[in-house]
Each structure stands twice: as C-alpha cells, then as structure tokens.
Amino acid sequence: YGKNTIKFLRLHREGKKHFVKEVEVCAHLRLTSPQEYLEGNNSLVIPTDTIKNIVLVLAKKNGIPSLEQFAIDICNHFMTTFCQVAYVKTYVQEVPWQRLHEDGVPHIHSFICVPDGIRFCEAEQCRNGPLIVFAGIKDLKLMKTTQSGFEGFYKNEHTTLPERHDRILCGELFCKWSYGECKNFDFDCIWKKIRECILEAFAGPPDCGEYSPSYQKTVNCIQMLVLSRVSQVQVIEVVLNNTFYNVVDMKNLGLTNDKEVLVPVEAPYGSCACTLGRKKFFEA
C-alpha cells in the first residue's frame, strides 16, 4: 500500500538565482505482517498521510540533488526508521522546467516548461537486500522525415501494406534502464548522456542521417549505443509507440502532392518493444 501522486515544487535559492524541481512521487510499502489485511489490526500501518508528509519533509531537509538520490533518500528513511517495513518502492518523475534564456542570457528566476520528454526514476529495497535503482525517460516525441523505410516483410493473403523505402519515422518513446545495485553515480550526468545517445541513434549524423529499415532496428540501435557508451547501465528497455502519416491525395484539387502535406493516422497505433542487457547481468 502507499501514497500516489504526491506533487510539489522544491525551490532552492542561491543569492538572487533560483533553482526549481517540480516532481510527482509515489511511495509504496510492504509490511512484515499482513495483519491489517487478515485481522483488521492497524497497529503496524503507517498512514498514507504520514507517508506524504515524510516525502515533503525529506524534500525540505535534503532538497532534490537528483531524482535518483531523492528516491534513495525516501527508501533509506523508511528502512531505517520503521522496523515493520519489509519492502519500499519509490517512483519519482519530474516536470520538465528549463531555465528561460533571453538573448542567450539565463534568467535568474524564470523558467519555461518544455515537453521534450519526462525524466523519471524508481528505487526499491527489501530489508537486508540491496537498493536497486532504475531511471528513464518517457513521452519523448521524435520524428525524422526521411531515411526510413519498411521493405521485405512477410506477406500473405491478408497483407495490404505496400512496401516503402522512404517514409516518415515518428513515435513516442519510453526508455527505462537499470543500474543494478545502487552505487555513488552521477545520476544527472548519466541521464543526460543516455538522452544524447537516444537522439543520436534515432536521427543519425546531422548532415545526412542514417537509414532505418524498421522501428525495431531503431529501437535496437538505441539500446546498443547506450550499452556501448554508458557502462553503469545493466539492462535497458525501450518502447516506441509509432505514429504513421499518410500523404493527402490532392489530384481532385488539381495539385501534385509530393509528400508535402500529410495527415496522421489516428488509430490503431503500432508499437515495438525490446529489453536488452549485459550477459553478465543475466548470468548473475
């Protein structure tokens, strides 16, 4: 049981310069005894309102140095404070506020919300067990207008999809990775590096791009690049929910439409997913 959707803004001041972190937290506990379920005995139950207040107090006392560290702080607090807690899991996601710039100059106290992906993390721990940390990015919308196709696929009497060697590749990406057992990582630096890997693998070189023969291959390229460059990542899951665009037929309007006006296909959506990890992690 636990408390979901604990939303708050943490404001940090350094002189005239302000820093903000707006987050949403979910904190769940499992107790050493199920007596509240089986017997109606609530003597070990930490009220969900108390859970919420603890999260807010930790934000006040410790700040949010990184999402992952804040999730770790919450786990550590419940494990070290309450002997009846057998397991704790914390989820934290961030509202994407970025500092506002005017003529290239960063503003000291103004911010803009930029929907270029939502950062999140999870931390979980069993009593006498290791602290495990996950992190990720979701709702990251990506598009490239060429260098994508889909050809040579299996066909039978139900196949109506034509082969395409030049199409728009567009989708909403979810990516989650595991660090394995928690260590003293620079979580902010790692998250930024992984995000850069995602964008690079999706788009290819800026002057020419890179051909994608399928959404599946693009997903695998993202995972392989992350694992090759970020040694701290043990397992990475990527889900790409596809958005398709159809070229508008303008012949009746007396116009030739050379893939200049397209409309999104509302439904159904395509989706592909893959989880990839280091061999040593699975062997362990």
From TrEMBL:
Its EC number is 1.7.3.3. GO terms for biological process: purine nucleobase catabolic process; urate catabolic process. The keyword Oxidoreductase applies. This is Uricase. It is found in: Peroxisome. SUPFAM superfamilies: Tetrahydrobiopterin biosynthesis enzymes-like. Belongs to the uricase family. Keywords: Oxidoreductase, Peroxisome, Purine metabolism. PANTHER family: URICASE (PTHR42874:SF1). The keyword Membrane does not apply. It holds the Pfam family Uricase. It catalyses: urate + O2 + H2O = 5-hydroxyisourate + H2O2. Urate binds at T48, D49, F150, R167, Q216, N242. InterPro entries: Uricase. Its main location: other. Pathway: Purine metabolism; urate degradation; (S)-allantoin from urate: step 1/3. Catalyzes the oxidation of uric acid to 5-hydroxyisourate, which is further processed to form (S)-allantoin. 5-hydroxyisourate binds at T48, D49, F150, R167, Q216, N242. GO terms for cellular component: peroxisome. It is an enzyme of class 1 (oxidoreductase). O2 binds at T48, N242. GO terms for molecular function: urate oxidase activity.
